[in-house]
Structure formats: C-alpha cells, structure tokens
C-alpha cells in the first residue's frame, strides 16, 4: 500500500476546509491507507472508511491506519462498486463522499458512479470530493455524469494551495497531473 499523490491533494483540500468538517458524515471509498479519511476524522468528522469487500487485505490496511492514528473507533466496511450489499444498504446518509484516485480504470467508472448515485439518494445534498490523476485525454466522466443526472465542478489546485511541487510530488516515474472535482446531483434533480 502506498500514499498516492491524489490522496495528498485530497487531504490538502480537506485541510483547507477543516473548519467545515466537524460533525459531517463522511465516507471514504477505495480508501487504501486512508489518508483523506483519517485527516477528516482528526478534524472532527464522523468518518467511515471503505475499500473493496473482495480485497480483505485492503480492509486490513484501513484498520491498521486507524490504529496507527489513534482512531480505532472508525468503522471500516467492505464495499464493492456497483454491487448492492448489506454493508452498502446499512450506511447512514453521508454529507461528503471522498474518493482519491478511484477513477483509474475506465471500465470501473460506471460502477463507481452507480454506487455514488445510490449513496446520494440517501442525502441528495451530498457531494463527492474526488481527486484523480490524468492518465489519458480520451477518458471522460461527462457522459456518465449526464446519465446519472450529476454535475461536476473542477476545483483549481491553486484555490486550496495544492499547486505546489511538494504537495503531490511522487517518486514514481512519469507525469503526475492531479485534478480535483466536486460531483453532486444536477440542480434540477433536487
């Protein structure tokens, strides 16, 4: 497990908005080492961490992150995108859903948005705060967002001081352009 550059940028966005987090219900999907969710919990949010129910080692990494950060009370649940499960059905309404670098494989995009749509049905004012690494100019969420009656706002990194070299730098080879999005239901669906 690795803290990817997208997680650092999303954590910076959370830190920038830390005064609005106390008491918010926040779910991190695809959490892995859970940096954004852990930070949100440290800022006073009521956080649930999740990763794939098909990858028990990822769920264990979430639990280890909780213990290492003195947050053993955080709930960790297995959610597999696009699948209805008891854990998904049992989740309370969320104010914010965090997703760091989950838009990785285009074949998963619709399953992710299906899960987000289901979660947002419980609280139509919920938002998905997501960072992703630009991997291909051919990949787009636009058609899927339209299909699921969602809208997306691109958040410039400089608006929350995440445009600095040391924020999202990585020892991994290649270019690491990170983007920040806030996704919500389109206005006419509320």
Q: What shape does the CA trace take?
A: globular
Strand fraction equals 15-25%
Number of helices: 6
Oligomeric composition of the shown chains:
single chain
Mean pLDDT: 90
Subcellular location: Cytoplasm; Nucleus
Family: Belongs to the methyltransferase superfamily. METTL23 family.
EC number: 2.1.1.319
Protein name: Histone-arginine methyltransferase METTL23
Overview features:
6 helices, single chain, alpha/beta, 31% helix, 190 residues, S-adenosyl-L-methionine, methyltransferase, seven-stranded mixed sheet
Task: Please give a structural write-up.
The model has no long low-confidence stretch (mean pLDDT 90). Strand 2, helix 3 and strand 3 form a beta-alpha-beta unit. The protein has a domain of 132 residues. 31% of the residues lie in helices and 22% in strands. The chain is an alpha/beta fold. A 7-stranded mixed β-sheet has the order 3-2-1-4-5-7-6. Helix 1 runs parallel beside helix 2. The N and C termini lie far apart (38 Å). It is found in: Cytoplasm; Nucleus. This is Histone-arginine methyltransferase METTL23. It catalyses: L-arginyl-[protein] + 2 S-adenosyl-L-methionine = N(omega),N(omega)-dimethyl-L-arginyl-[protein] + 2 S-adenosyl-L-homocysteine + 2 H(+).
SSE layout:
Elements: H1 5-16, E1 25-29, H2 35-42, E2 46-51, H3 56-68, E3 75-78, H4 86-90, E4 96-100, H5 109-122, E5 127-133, H6 142-147, E6 150-155, E7 178-185
Parallel strand pairs: 1-2, 1-4, 2-3, 4-5
Antiparallel strand pairs: 5-7, 6-7
Helix pairs in contact: 1-2
